[in-house]
Amino acid sequence: MKKILLFCEALRNRAGIERMTVELANLLSEDYKVSIVTIDLFKAEECPYAVSPKVKIMSLNSSFNKTFSSLKSLNIRNIRLFRKICKELYPEVIITVATPLIRISAPAIIGLGIRNIGWEHFNIFAGSKAGTLFKSVAPWFVDKTVVLTEADAVDYRKKKAPDIIVIPNFTSIGSNNPSRIENKVLLAVGRHSEQKGFDLLLKAWAKSKPQGWLLTIVGDGKLKEDNIDLAEKLGISDSVIFKPSTPNIVEEFQNASCFVLSSRYEGLVLVLIEAKTMGLPSICFDCPNSPREVIRHGIDGWLVPSENIDALAKEIELRLKDIDTLRLAGEKARIDALKRYSPEAIKSQWENIL
């Protein structure tokens, strides 16, 4: 049985990268011998996602220096620790989760004959200029680089990066009953960070104020209190509900009738795929790089110019007036998502490169 090793920084955060790392490991463990190696110490009680008993988890019990400005940024200790584990497990293939970790995985396996696949979840321009530069050259140090969208692939190829493969994320949420689209709830899900643009969403909500509707924002993060304060200043606290991150996100999808994405930038938005799979139409900023690859404008959702608060407000006001249109778009969303983003569909794409 072929051995696969997924290498990631940590598994303690409720975020898309961590979730997909666990989901992919679980999926591949049906046919492969799969291990996950984390840099940070892994504690089962801190992991928000269920890991299959078939998946072995090991840790470097270290930390990752993300800077490019000191000797510590060479991560020499991490390279030595990871090489030791690779010699112990000797996988045929490593999947390095997030391009920055190639700084560790690539030198660690020199001379070992192990294939290395980079798996990048954000577009090439997300983050710092130094990060963009590194992501541009990192594909030269692995066998293949998997990105999540066709737009991401175009950006990498413009930088002359070799062996770029597009494999989108998947979700197993489709086994649940979809939303019946009967409650006047507009749902947003994500970390309270600048990237997610909840400040833009709240300003748009204040301009639209659909009669009888509630905006529910599910998530935690350092800007949550700022967003709660902003809702109060805008005079919309009575129509906005802030909820913490939850392992029962299915219930939030089932209780909503429309999903909204206000991000300034994204990789492939897993929560948007989940919303579609749960039968929700979506209103999204057309931000780089993925909403337009997930949402079919005018069919199962609606795209508005990125960071345009007035356009988002108008679209929210227009679409939430017509529950029948929402139901029809939601039905089409679920059919499309089950076809494109099911575990079975995505597993075969990974097997083609493993």
UniProtKB/TrEMBL annotation:
InterPro entries given in the database record: Glyco_trans_1
CDD domains xref list: GT4_AmsD-like
An MF annotation (GO) of this entry: glycosyltransferase activity
Statement: the UniProt record of this protein carries the keyword Cell wall biogenesis/degradation: no
Keywords: Transferase
Protein name: Glycosyltransferase family 4 protein
All copies of domain Glycosyl transferase family, residue ranges: 182-334
Residues in coiled coil: none
Taxonomic lineage: Bacteria, Pseudomonadati, Bacteroidota, Bacteroidia, Bacteroidales
